[in-house]
Design brief:
Blueprint: E1 2-12, H1 17-40, H2 45-52, H3 59-73, E2 88-90, E3 96-99, E4 107-114, E5 117-125, H4 130-137, E6 142-151, E7 154-165, H5 170-174, E8 177-183, E9 189-194, E10 200-205, H6 207-229, H7 233-263, E11 268-273, H8 275-281, H9 286-293, H10 297-310, E12 315-318, E13 334-338, E14 341-344, E15 353-355, H11 356-369, H12 377-384, H13 393-396, H14 414-418
Parallel strand pairs: 8-11, 11-12
Antiparallel strand pairs: 1-5, 1-7, 2-6, 3-4, 4-5, 6-7, 8-9, 9-10, 13-14, 14-15
Length: 419
């Protein structure tokens, strides 16, 4: 037996004015506590507790902060600022569900407000996740951390749940088709896999989306800087949030399309580059480090991961070392005469020149095929323990951090600088 963790989606149904006010109070108090602990640089649970204890929050929210803030202030992420739309986190004991199948709306969620006050609110569930919710209700699955957030006037809960599943046989895993995923700036995402004969097939590049995100980031930096110089801080913040929301929309659409691509492949496994190695190897001078750390690598990774999990598609990670430098055909190192072009240095190789991002995606897939993968055991164990349940936390909180030089259009891919 193995374990599978899934994020369950609930939409809170028409809370009345009083309950909406209480939800906003919880969100606002949580975000103030998070910002205060982050500004203080709390890198331990004890230090975080000293800050958040004064805020009017439930113990479940405070305990979630004590687990989460040290990750931001330690070495796990490189967050330089916190978005004001950060979801409220509760530890696994905080949220309660009640199932009333005789009612038109079957599910009810008890949302902690503060120590001695809770909100019962009807909730509509994703119908594809009914068996998971019923497993939670029957104690056949274990609840992890939950997140509360508002989007376009509607309140949502995301709940992590872990349950036992039958282990896949080794033969089944061997038959999987690895789909390599290369994340970069020029092409926001590139995917490719090999067919049964070993030939690369159906590459797809989201180059236009990479261009769109670069444009939005440049607009964010130049416009907000001008507004700040004029003393219009509030307008600058509002304008920056609106632009970052547009970037988030691009990320959500593209990652959904990546998972759709994987669904079209027979017995797929999505293969990503391990962010731990990318962070360790990212040392290319102050200018490029700032730019790459501000890019949404972790956010894209996390969205692909949880959307793939929803579809039952496994996700693996591999060391990114040299995935952009090696030729996918012969393995010899090459170089890039142009941003989008890889040239093999082996004169006897049939490749010659190849699309650079596609070459990287194939190498990522091949690295899994060769037997190298870093399974998500650490991540899954954190979820089960009720701690952080996604890799987005640093990147999703990190807004565009471009310097003026960074704002210039310079196309660089993750693969290049991770190698």
């Amino acid at each position: 037996m193995g374990e599978l963790t899934k994020t369950l989606e609930l939409k809170l149904v028409d809370p009345n004015l009083h309950k909406r006010q209480k939800l906003r109070e919880t969100r606002d108090a949580y975000q103030r506590a998070l910002q205060a602990a982050f500004d203080t640089g709390c890198d331990t649970q004890s230090a975080t507790n000293d800050v958040v204890v004064e805020y009017d929050l439930s113990g479940y929210a405070k305990n979630a902060l004590k687990k989460y803030v040290p990750q931001l202030c330690g070495n796990s992420y490189d967050a330089n600022e916190i978005h004001d739309d950060h979801p409220v986190r509760f530890t696994n004991e905080g949220l309660q569900l009640d199932h009333q199948p005789q009612n038109a709306i079957e599910w009810y969620a008890k949302v902690p407000h503060h120590e001695d006050y809770h909100l019962w609110i009807p909730a509509r569930a994703n119908p594809d996740q009914r068996d998971w919710l019923e497993a939670l209700n029957a104690d056949d699955a274990e609840m992890g951390e939950s997140r509360l957030f508002e989007r376009d006037g509607t309140w949502y809960l995301h709940i992590t749940a872990t349950r036992d599943v039958e282990d896949e046989s080794e033969a089944s895993a061997d038959k999987r088709t690895p789909v390599g995923v290369d994340i970069g700036e020029a092409s926001l995402v590139t995917v490719c896999h090999r067919d049964g004969s070993g030939s690369p097939v159906r590459p797809r590049l989201w180059a236009a989306d990479g261009k769109a995100v670069r444009r939005l980031r440049k607009t964010h930096f130049t416009a907000t800087r001008r507004l700040q110089k004029r003393g219009s801080e509030r307008i600058a913040d509002s304008f920056g949030d609106a632009l970052w929301d547009q970037i988030d929309d691009v990320f959500h659409r593209v990652t959904s399309e990546v998972v759709d691509y994987a669904e079209s492949v027979d017995n797929p496994v999505l293969v990503l580059e391990d962010l731990r190695y990318i962070r360790e190897n990212m040392d290319y001078g102050e200018y490029m480090n700032r730019r790459l750390h501000g890019w949404g690598f972790a956010k894209l990774h996390a969205q692909i991961r949880y959307k793939a999990t929803e579809k039952g598609i496994p996700v693996e990670t591999v060391n990114p070392r040299n995935t952009s430098k090696a030729c996918h055909a012969c393995g010899e190192h090459g170089y890039r005469p142009r941003q989008a072009t890889f040239r093999c240095s082996n004169g006897g190789c049939w490749v010659g020149e190849y699309q650079a991002d596609v070459n990287g995606a194939i190498n990522i897939a091949d690295r899994y095929r060769s037997g190298e993968s870093h399974r998500q055991s650490d991540w899954a164990s954190r979820q089960k323990a009720g701690a952080d349940d996604s890799a987005t936390d640093g990147a999703s909180l990190t807004g565009p951090q471009d310097s003026q030089a960074d704002a210039e259009t310079q196309q660089t891919t993750l693969g290049t600088y991770a190698s």
